[in-house]
Amino acid sequence: MFFDKIYHQNENLLIVKKNGKYGFINMEDVIISTPKYDLIYNFEDGFAKVYLCGKCGIVNKKGKVVCDTIYDYVSNFKNGYAIVALNEKYGFINSRGEAICDIKYKIVSHFVEGRAIVESDDKISKNKFGFINEEGKEICKLKYQRVHDFKDGCALVHLNGKMAIIDIYGNEICKNVYTDIARLENGLFAIMENQCYGCMDKNGELVLPIVYDSITEMKQQL
User: What is the CATH number of the domain that holds 67?
Assistant: First the structure.
């Protein structure tokens, strides 16, 4: 087959164009996917996003359709999952193209330590952030005003002007009593209450009383 245009590509594949449609071939000129898509993005980690009739899907390097072109948007895979959007709602698919949860969230982020930030589409509540696990299950109520990605098995969350720490199961390690919490090294956290500072560990246990004007982490210089 003769092509109208051949584009340089990574991962030992070339994108080709024929009659306004795109496909891809390998470096031996073997057709892996006949030109049938309206657009093909670069391959990353063995997967490429494809568009057809305004919808997005995913194919692998063998030309197999991993995810049909049914979504308005599909991100690249990260940590085994891709973000998908449909009708201005967001969810996730795994590397087999299977949806792991309903496409129902207003905002989502990529998985970090097996947990992803999600925001509910509740138009009444102002407290609507939380997390889901890799099975698509919400590990806590979507009740927080703001949340941070997990690190070392715990995440910082905000509720009603206070902060807390939750574990990977959504349990609050410490309640929302602190005005501010900041991560330090070695699993410790600086905490503030009533304009005084202290320090606690990742289990919520105080290691320094909340009596100091400030706490500054010392960096060892080699």
Answer: 2.40.10
Dihedral sign of CA atoms 157, 163, 169, 171 in order: negative
**Does a structural domain hold residue 12?**
yes
Per DSSP, helices labelled H in the chain are: none
CA atoms within 13 A on the CB side of 165: 23
Q: In this structure, is residue 26 part of a structural domain?
A: yes
In a domain, 23, yes or no: yes
Number of domains in the chain: 1
**Other Cβ atoms within 10 Å of 24 Cβ, number:** 25
More confident residue, 8 or 45: 45
Note if the pTM is more than 0.90. Answer: no
CA-to-CA distance for 103 and 29, rounded, in angstroms? 39
Q: Mean pLDDT lowest for which of 44-53, 54-63, 118-127?
A: 118-127
- What is the domain extent for residue 34? 1-71
Q: Residues 90-115: what's their mean pLDDT?
A: 97
Question: What residues contact 21, with CB distance under 8 A and at least 6 apart?
Answer: 35, 36, 37, 38
Q: Amino acid letter at 162?
A: K
Distance of CA 56 to the CA centre of its chain: 18
Q: For residue 81, what are the β-bridge partners?
A: 78, 94
Q: Is 143 exposed, middle or buried (0-12, 13-18, 19+ CB in 10 A)?
A: middle
> Tens of pLDDT along 156-166?
999 988 999 99
Residue 130 has pLDDT above 60, yes or no: yes
